[in-house]
Amino acid sequence: MPISGLPPYDDTNIFARILRGEIPCKKVYEDDWALAFNDINPQAPTHVLVIPKGKYCSFADFSAAASEAEIAGFMRAVGKIAKDLGHEAPGYRLLANMGADSGQEVPHFHVHLFAGRPLGRMLPSS
Ligand code: 5GP
Questions:
Q1: 36 lines ligand 1 (CB under 6 A)
Q2: Is there a contact between 14 and 106 (Cβ–Cβ < 8 Å)?
Q3: Using an 8 Å Cβ cutoff, are 88 and 80 in contact?
Q4: Ligand 1 atom with the shortest distance to the CA of 107
Q5: What's the maximum distance between 2 C-alpha atoms anywhere in the chain?
């Protein structure tokens, strides 16, 4: 159920369609809680998107409405993916956009996993 003040989940969003297998993705990992696949427009040598299997619009929605099992399963999946891809030692960055100011494009909660080179400043100076 969406949290108040946020729009309802849109079943036609691109990640919902990927989850249903209606459009392809380059899958990196899947378990009961998460699906991970390569970003179509990578911003680093590794740019993986990790999404929960449940219908959550954003981090706000997921953190407020997901069950503890979903949250634990999802977070463990993110850590496992980074480790299995060999990024723990050199390091990596996780990013989740939420809402208009962040530039969130796809309204299904997702974590970006960036790695494979020094990633520079966290935010551009402005
Ligand atoms: P956001 O701006 O919502 O945090 O990030 C959405 C991400 O989804 C972008 O990095 C964009 O490149 C990626 N993306 C958009 N459409 C597709 C798609 O059809 N397939 C894949 N693999 N990534 C997509």
A1: no
A2: yes
A3: no
A4: 3
A5: 41
36-93 pLDDT, tens digit each: 999 999 999 999 999 999 999 999 999 999 999 999 999 999 999 999 999 999 999 9
Tally of CB atoms within 10 A around 74: 22
Q: Is 6 part of any domain?
A: no
Range of the domain at 32: 21-115
13 lines ligand 1 (CB under 6 A): no
The answer to whether residue 36 is domain-embedded is yes
Please give the single-letter amino acid code of residue 33.
Answer: W
Query: What pTM was computed for the model?
Result: 0.96
Residue with tokens 């946020």: 6
Q: How many domains does the chain have?
A: 1
Assigned domain for 38 exists: yes
Question: Phi/psi at 65 (nearest 5 deg)?
Answer: -110, -20
| Helical (H) or strand (E) element with 115 | strand 111-115
Both tokens of 28, joined, read 């990196």
CATH number for the domain that contains residue 47: 3.30.428.10
Residue 31 lies in a domain: yes
Q: d(Cα 40, Cα 42) in Å, to the nearest integer?
A: 6
